[in-house]
Design goal:
The complex is a heterodimer of chains A (172) and B (507). Chain A is an alpha+beta fold. Chain A is 31% helix and 34% strand. Chain A contains five helices and nine strands, in the order ααβααββββββββα. Helix content of chain B is 70%, strand content 2%. Chain B is built from 21 helices and two strands. Classes of the chains: A alpha+beta (172), B mainly alpha (507). Chains A and B meet through helix 3, strand 3, strand 4, strand 5 and strand 8 of A and helix 3, helix 15 and helix 16 of B.
């Protein structure tokens, strides 16, 4: 009986070690700007993960770097990376012709950051580039060139009439 | 008896509307050049199409209805209100071509918001738009603040007898100089000098904050145009949160407070009459209402423990409140923070501040401090009359550039406009509530649209009901033009229909 108990205990321990653990159990939850703002009190002071495209300016300050990460249509979050956190090379930042690097950060969310005068931000403890950025296509459509030419010709014609024709004097 | 409408009336309206449209077309050259400088070829082509189309419409209108007759008051009002609608539709073309709008109605919403210096937007993926389109957004709001008719007056219309009436129709009723063209030039001179100073100051701050030098001055110009015109746009979706900078917030706040002041006050100060700042009824009214509403905001935020210290409370609370009061709409908190953290009292205080708004003949909206001052002084005078002996002659005064006597007529005019503003605020709120938005949210958003503020608590989105978009657009338009010219336009359309019917009966 005693031996059976030992065997069962060993099996149970082995099962615990081998059993698949959900990836999120050890990882901070991956949250969006909307979730953080809508439930700011819930996540205040907690360690969270956040993924987003790096917007155009990496603003280097005395104590660290600010970057803004866009995670959806018209939503973005300010992330502060202090000087003692390793910052990977951000090769691409967003602009009209570029899709910025998508980075994953882990850090502490502040509903109202005391260090930054009440800002809603995340202080990163780790920053990883997930997807490198790439050039963004903004092709010129040939039909628009045709439209422009047609409109320009019409405009030229109307302007010629306008500046050629003397104004009529009309009694009111 | 309402007069009949004749063909010549249409000629006058068509001709001057055409000139204003030509002005808008020429203005589009600026974003087109910006796109060329930044080598955004597709965007530059979109603007080239828009320039050609707008100029074509303008020249066709001007050619088809060319006249030398000068506009009367009715024409002037119709031209002012009508020009804004034509400008709104044509200015939406580059938005639509950019592929960042879900519908043409959304594009018109954004241009109406820009011209009326409101600052709400439905543009999709703002963080990825071309520099040219960003320039256009901010230019719209800058020109809208001074008035698009003022722009056309300066460069195209000249000093005709009816020109001042058109300007009045656009809400610029202060006659600073005898010559109307001089007034328009003066307004532009003041605004352009500030633009230069503002761009440099904000550009340097942006650069010091880590923005790339070649972009810093564009950011400076955008934020200045947004602040001075009390517009509220910013180049990125986070608005002022993008900069993480108190210096940027403070400098912008200084410019939007200046922009919310009456042009006549700027002119008085520029002409050496500095004491006017201390005596002007609008400044007194503004100071009192800012202090009162900020006290309410502080109470709300402290009750709920939103901010941990006075610095954070001032940086967020005061900035948001003054941004609302001056009807600017720049924001350094997230839109939903109003609902989630500020709570009903904080939102109500901000709503009241937005409803009151800026100064008359400024770039701002709302009831205006002048009207608040007149109504309060009128009530005080009536109370003094009641308390005085029957034979006593009691007169009230208010100081606006000079000492003015408060008459029943002045108080009545001010009260009528205030009632009309309240009416559009309520209508917008009721429509919002009918679609299921909570009362506080619906009222906040409606007042923000009607007072041309642009702060949002999250209602304004591309997915919101179409009717609500139209109601907000009407609120922005009426609020900016202060009703008179819009009502005249409606009246003119009704009279035109009746005239046509009468002519048919006579035939």
């Amino acid at each position: 009986m005693k031996r059976l108990c030992v065997v069962l205990t060993v099996v149970a321990l082995a099962a615990l070690i081998v059993a698949p653990v959900p990836a999120s159990a050890g990882q901070p939850p991956l949250l969006s700007t909307t979730e953080l703002v809508e439930n700011s009190y819930k996540w205040d002071g907690k360690t969270v993960s956040f993924k987003g495209e790096v917007l155009q300016d990496l603003m280097v300050r005395k104590d660290g770097t600010w970057m803004n990460l866009s995670d959806d249509n018209n939503t973005a979050m300010g992330v502060f990376v202090s000087k003692d956190v390793a910052m990977p090379v951000i090769a691409h930042v967003e602009d009209y012709r570029t899709v910025g690097d998508v980075v994953l950060i882990t850090g502490v969310f502040h509903r109202v950051c005391v260090q930054h005068e009440g800002e809603t931000d995340i202080h990163a403890v780790s920053v990883t580039v997930l997807t490198p950025g790439s050039p963004r296509e903004n092709p010129i459509h040939i039909d628009r060139v045709v439209w422009f030419l047609v409109l320009a010709c019409l405009l030229g014609l109307v302007m010629w009439f306008y500046y050629r024709k003397p104004a009529r004097r009309i009694e009111h | 008896m309402v007069r009949r409408v004749w063909r010549e009336d249409f000629r006058i309206i068509g001709y001057y509307t055409g000139l204003v449209t030509i002005g808008v077309g020429l203005l589009m050259l600026v974003p087109m050049m910006t796109s060329l400088v930044f080598r955004e070829w597709a965007s530059a082509l979109d603007f080239a199409i828009s320039v050609a189309l707008t100029l074509l419409v303008g020249y066709v209108l001007a050619l088809a209805s060319r006249t030398r007759s000068t506009p009367g008051l009715t024409h002037a009002m119709v031209i002012a209100a009508g020009s804004w609608l034509v400008a709104m539709a044509l200015s939406g073309v580059p938005y639509m071509l950019s592929g960042h709008m879900k519908s043409f109605l959304d594009a018109c919403f954004d241009t109406m918001s820009g011209f009326t210096t409101t600052g709400m937007f439905l543009l999709q993926d703002l963080d990825h738009i071309a520099e040219g389109l960003n320039m256009w957004r901010h230019l719209l709001t800058y020109v809208g603040g001074q008035g698009i008719v003022v722009l056309a007056l300066t460069f195209l219309i000249g000093s005709t007898g009816g020109a001042f009436k058109i300007m009045v129709g656009e809400g610029k009723e202060e006659k600073l100089e005898p010559n109307v063209r001089h007034i328009a030039v003066l307004i532009w001179r003041i605004s352009l000098i500030y633009l230069g100073v503002g761009t440099v100051v904000l550009g340097l701050i942006a650069m010091a904050n880590g923005i790339k030098p070649y972009l810093a001055f564009f950011h400076g110009a955008y934020i200045f145009m947004s602040a001075w015109s009390t517009g509220g746009f910013a180049p990125y979706s986070q608005n002022m949160l993008y900069y993480h900078s108190s210096a940027m917030d403070i400098a912008s706040m200084v410019f939007f407070i200046l922009g919310s002041f009456n042009f006549a006050l700027h002119y008085a100060v520029w002409s050496g009459n500095r004491r006017e700042i201390l005596r002007n009824v609008e400044i007194v009214s503004f100071t009192i209402t800012v202090l009162t509403t900020f006290s309410l905001v502080c109470l709300a935020l402290m009750q709920r423990g939103v901010y941990p210290n006075a610095v954070a409370l001032f940086r967020r609370g005061f900035f948001q409140l003054v941004s609302g009061h001056t009807t600017t709409g720049q924001s350094n908190i997230y839109a939903r923070t109003f609902v989630r953290e500020w709570g009903p009292l904080g939102m109500l205080a901000t709503t009241i501040a937005m409803a009151i708004g800026a100064s008359a003949a400024s770039t701002g909206g709302g009831f205006k401090g002048l009207r608040m001052g007149i109504i309060v002084k009128g009530i005080a005078t009536d109370i003094r009359k009641l308390l005085s002996p029957e034979r006593a002659v009691v007169t009230g005064h208010y100081h606006h550039l000079r000492d003015n006597v408060i008459s029943d007529g002045v108080v009545k005019s001010a009260a009528v406009i205030v009632v009309l503003y309240v009416l559009i605020y309520v209508v917008g709120a009721v429509v919002g509530m009918a679609y299921g938005y909570p009362m506080a949210d619906a009222l906040f958003e409606s007042v923000s649209a009607g007072s041309n503020t642009g702060l949002s608590c999250g209602v304004t989105q591309a997915g919101m009901p179409t009717l609500l978009k139209i109601v907000y657009m009407l609120e922005m338009w009426m609020g900016r033009l202060e009703f008179l010219s819009v009502f005249t336009l409606f009246g003119f359309i009704a009279t035109s229909v009746r005239s046509v019917r009468l002519r048919k009966v006579a035939a």
